[in-house]
Amino acid sequence: MKQFRFYSTVFLAVGFLLTLSTICRSADAPTAVEQRHVTQLAIGDPVVVQVLGQPDATTVYVGDDGTISVPLVGNVQVAGMSPTEAATQIEKSLRNGGYFVDPHVTIVTPPRSQVVTVLGEVRSSGRFAINPGATILDVLAQAGGLKETASNVGYVLRKDSSGNVSRYPVNLNGLIDTKDAPPAPTLLGADTLVVPPAEHVFITGEVTTPGKYYIEPGMTVMQAIVRAGGITARGSEHRIELRRLGKDGQYQVLHAKSGDPIQAEDVIRVKESIF
């Protein structure tokens, strides 16, 4: 009997030490949520809120104002917080509202939605699911490609954790001509890609092929004239007239030089040589 009690005491001691070791390791180790999500909660993030003692978990999304809607207490500001900080904030709201004496809240953040929105001059605009690391070319392919009326410059709209939107220009022409182009920029979940319509310039007078032509950023008067086949033998590069729409809605007539930059809706007229 004494031997049995001795072994029982040993087993209990060993079990206590193992339990204590587990508790110590758990206190030092990050939680599952912290391991998966090292960034702060941002607008558009899905959030699963579980209150201890309540049978159902609530899945909500961080709104544009940085809040989530929590039953009983309403909107709670969480954008910019870690999941642990957000849970503490909800516990405080539940306690201050008198709904719980000592609430315990757990927040789980599933993977952020990998969906982007494509708008503008594409074959099929809408929302598209993407894989991590997807490029703008990948997304344009899902949208059916660019229309003929698409501009060479697109814009990526991206929100930060505070809800501020940044706009990044993208040279779409350079993406398509991949011979010497750098790698296409990648997109993140919740990004919006906007492809505006191309801007035009009108070229008339002594050029080979008068008409309307697409313009590129930084294009000059002479580069636009080259698009129209160049100046004819009767024309003069020293007699170029530029009609430009002013802020008052009226056209201004300017004497243009070949190296002057052009703007959308400019009208270039190459006059006859006087010699």
Give your account of this protein's structure.
With 275 residues, this protein is an alpha+beta fold. It folds into four domains: 1-30; 32-108, wza like domain (wza like fold); 115-195, Outer membrane lipoprotein wza domain like (Outer membrane lipoprotein wza fold like), CATH 3.10.560.10; 200-272, Roll (Outer membrane lipoprotein wza fold like), CATH 3.10.560.10. The chain has helices at residues 2-28, 32-36, 83-96, 136-142, 172-176, 221-227; strands at residues 46-51, 58-61, 67-70, 74-77, 105-108, 115-120, 126-129, 153-159, 165-171, 192-195, 200-205, 211-214, 235-245, 251-256, 267-272. The strands form four sheets. Strands 7-6-10-8-9 form a five-stranded mixed β-sheet. It has a five-stranded mixed β-sheet with strand order 12-11-15-13-14, with helices on one face. The model is unreliable at 1-38 (pLDDT under 50).
Number of helices, counting only DSSP H or I runs of 4 residues or more: 6
Q: Looking across the biggest beta sheet, what order are the strands in?
A: 7-6-10-8-9
Ends apart, CA distance between termini? 128 Å
Order of helices and strands: HHEEEEHEEEHEEHEEEHEEE
Largest sheet: 5 strands, mixed
Alpha carbon gyration radius: 32 Å
Shape: elongated
Helix content: 10-25%
Calculate the mean pLDDT score and round it: 80
Estimate nothing, just give the exact number of structural domains. 4
| Estimated structural class | alpha+beta
CATH architecture of the largest domain: Roll
Strand content: 25-35%
